[in-house]
Design goal:
homodimer; 5-stranded mixed sheet; alpha/beta; 13 strands; 9 helices; 323 residues; globular
Chain lengths: 323, 323
């Protein structure tokens, strides 16, 4: 086998790896829990170990891999390709590319995780066939990626596409970043957990997830939110609807700003909840869209699911970082 | 003289024309009041008459002009180059390009007025030397333009850059477009006039411009706002500060979305008020910016003033609409 590429999605809680062939078919997958507490060097070693594992799973030698890409929850310096700021991993200006290249003995291409996810959906998933695409990925936080004329918009210091920190309501809800009114403070697992906690603890409202809920998002699983919605839990429905309506407002905004052809919605929360979020998004979108017909823009759910990010990392490596 | 180009800025109240030479120096200017009520055909004739006037002013024959561009307050179909929707002129799908080409007997290139203004500032003005630029033009309304990798972002149906209708506060102040919380509902002459009218009429607050103020922006001149600020009028200062602080929030948003190198602020209100608006903008910007240092992005006032829009129209014609 030739032209195999390895893509790794380094997350705060888990690491996912895929190997794809030259037609971008995934031939093997592997995962591990991120050894977060051991620090960057140990995490780099862990990724190498996972790479060896996935190679033996695919019954290939490591040398058969021609490109290695890693998606990180960080902005990436467009000049050096180095990781700049990864708050979820506690890294700031951590020269992880250098460490990785020493550990792997090969050139490594880094890119922001949500940028990778959006790029994979644009090349191979829900947005394939379009040239101008914006991706929103809703998980613990909310991240985004922007493709214009088929190229990823990187921006100064690689910080374009930070769509979770767009203020849709200045002076509004407090966000983890310290500012107020960010989209992420309305539509993310963290936002849902905070809001549910407040309603249950302070306002004594009832919900089937009362026992599962703490202030932080770690204790609330996307699958629990999905189950509560299946059971028609009124409070959870209210909180989730409000969150995705806010995402709809942000989508109306991006159509006023860039008027892209296609919007892709993905991420852990979206994977768990599926298409029931579409009417919630549509509610916020339709009444706030300007100058175009709401149907002029395609709003689609992710097609690649968990594969989007590692696959995008592999595609980035294949293109030597020039996506 | 060779390679002369004509640029016309068709506004709801006035028409500005410039002729520029091959080095983009302006060699003549002319203006007229828009004969708004006479309808599109008469306005096209009026623009031809103004073109003849400016040519005789510059002592050249009309044939010496090699490119003609017109900036209109409308989205422009990227396929046909035709005017799609110009609410300030009351036009919808008005085939003005066809009419103009009949009247002028020449090829005419149309582009949105604020896109033209942003493009001129990027090529020749405050943002020259940068490749990624966003322009905000504050006048009766608020319009925007986006340049990425040196090219204008047009979007589907030419509707990118409608930055006045980004919701910075969903559910907030009512905008002329029917939605709520648009930037234009906070930062524009219309927004200032509405707000001042409310404070003076309903809350009986005092201001030096009490006599000048009606519900609509037409009665309030940018120069009156400037004079009130000079006289340290408390109410006007409050309203204007709040408006430009909101623009600062929108600028923080665009840095989270596109992370451009340079932001240009222009338009009639900005021309009249000058650099005193910068600390107001900075207040909203600084506390809402994410992932970059506030100083990483250059925020600059327009350099070309009233020439920006017609000059951009001329540059668009020179490039045969491919800007």
């Amino acid at each position: 086998m030739e032209d195999l590429k390895l893509g790794i999605d380094l997350g705060g809680t888990k690491i996912l790896a895929v190997i794809a062939d030259k037609n971008n078919n995934i031939i093997a997958r592997a995962k591990a829990k991120t050894k977060f507490k051991l620090g960057p060097d140990a995490i780099c070693e862990q990724m190498k170990k996972l790479s060896d594992e996935i190679c033996s799973k695919a019954e290939i030698s490591f040398d058969a891999i021609s490109a290695i890409g890693i998606a990180v929850p960080s902005s990436i310096d467009p000049e050096t390709g180095e990781c700049l700021h990864a708050p979820n991993l506690g890294w700031k200006n951590q020269p992880i590319k250098k460490t990785l290249e020493k550990v792997f003995g090969r050139e490594i291409y880094l890119q922001n995780d949500v940028n990778c996810g959006t790029y994979a959906e644009f090349r191979l998933g829900a947005a394939s066939g379009f040239s101008n695409v914006v991706g929103y990925f809703v998980g613990t936080g909310l991240g985004g990626g922007i493709i214009l004329n088929g190229k990823l918009v990187k921006g100064i210091r690689g910080s374009a596409g930070e769509l979770g920190h767009e203020k849709i309501c200045f002076g509004g809800r407090k966000c983890g970043c310290g500012a107020r009114g960010c989209l992420e403070a309305y539509c993310s697992k963290t936002a849902f957990a905070k809001r549910l906690h407040k309603e249950i603890e302070k306002k004594k409202r009832k919900s089937v997830i009362s026992k599962l809920i703490g202030k932080d998002a770690d204790r609330l699983k996307s699958s629990s939110i999905a189950r509560a919605l299946e059971q028609e839990d009124k409070l959870v429905k209210e909180v989730v609807s409000e969150g995705f309506e806010a995402l709809g407002v942000a989508i109306a905004n991006i159509t006023s700003i860039l008027a892209p052809e296609c919007i892709v919605i993905g991420g852990g929360v979206v994977e768990a909840l599926g298409k029931q979020i579409m009417p919630m998004i549509w509610k916020g979108y339709e009444k706030n869209v300007f100058a175009i017909n709401p149907d002029d823009v395609q709003i689609r759910l992710s097609k690649l699911g968990d594969d989007a990010v590692p696959l995008g990392a592999a595609l980035n490596a294949e293109k030597k970082g020039d996506i």
